[in-house]
Inverse folding.
C-alpha cells in the first residue's frame, strides 16, 4: 500500500496538486516507518520525496528538514562515500542557500 500512496504522491506532484502530493507521501512514509523502522532506504526516499514537494511549495525550511532526515538515514545505511549521500548533500547545500 505504501508504494501506491507514494505513486499517487508522485502523480499529484507532476500535476501540481502539491497539497495532495504531501498528503499521500506522508501516508507512504507512515506505512514504511511501521514496516521497516527509521533506518531504511525506503524511509530515506520518502523523506527525500517530501523534501522535493515542500521545495516546490516554497517551504524551504520544511524541505531542508526532510532532506536532513534522508541524509542522516543514508549515511547510516551507506556511509559517507556513496552516490546517494553525495546527491543528498548537494540538495542540502542548495536548500541552505535558498533559505
Amino acid at each position: 500500500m505504501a508504494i501506491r500512496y507514494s505513486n499517487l504522491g508522485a502523480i499529484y506532484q507532476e500535476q501540481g496538486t502539491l497539497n495532495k502530493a504531501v498528503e499521500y507521501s506522508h501516508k507512504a512514509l507512515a506505512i514504511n516507518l511501521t514496516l521497516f523502522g527509521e533506518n531504511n532506504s525506503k524511509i530515506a526516499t520518502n523523506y527525500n520525496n517530501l523534501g522535493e514537494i515542500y521545495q516546490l511549495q516554497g517551504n524551504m525550511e520544511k524541505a531542508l528538514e526532510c532532506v536532513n532526515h534522508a541524509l542522516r538515514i543514508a549515511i547510516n545505511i551507506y556511509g559517507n562515500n556513496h552516490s546517494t549521500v553525495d546527491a543528498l548533500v548537494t540538495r542540502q547545500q542548495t536548500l541552505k542557500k535558498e533559505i
Summary: The chain has a mean pLDDT of 98. Helices lie at 2-15, 18-36, 41-57, 60-78, 83-98. The two ends are 34 Å apart (CA to CA). The domain at 1-97 is CATH 1.25.40.10 (Serine Threonine Protein Phosphatase 5, Tetratricopeptide repeat).
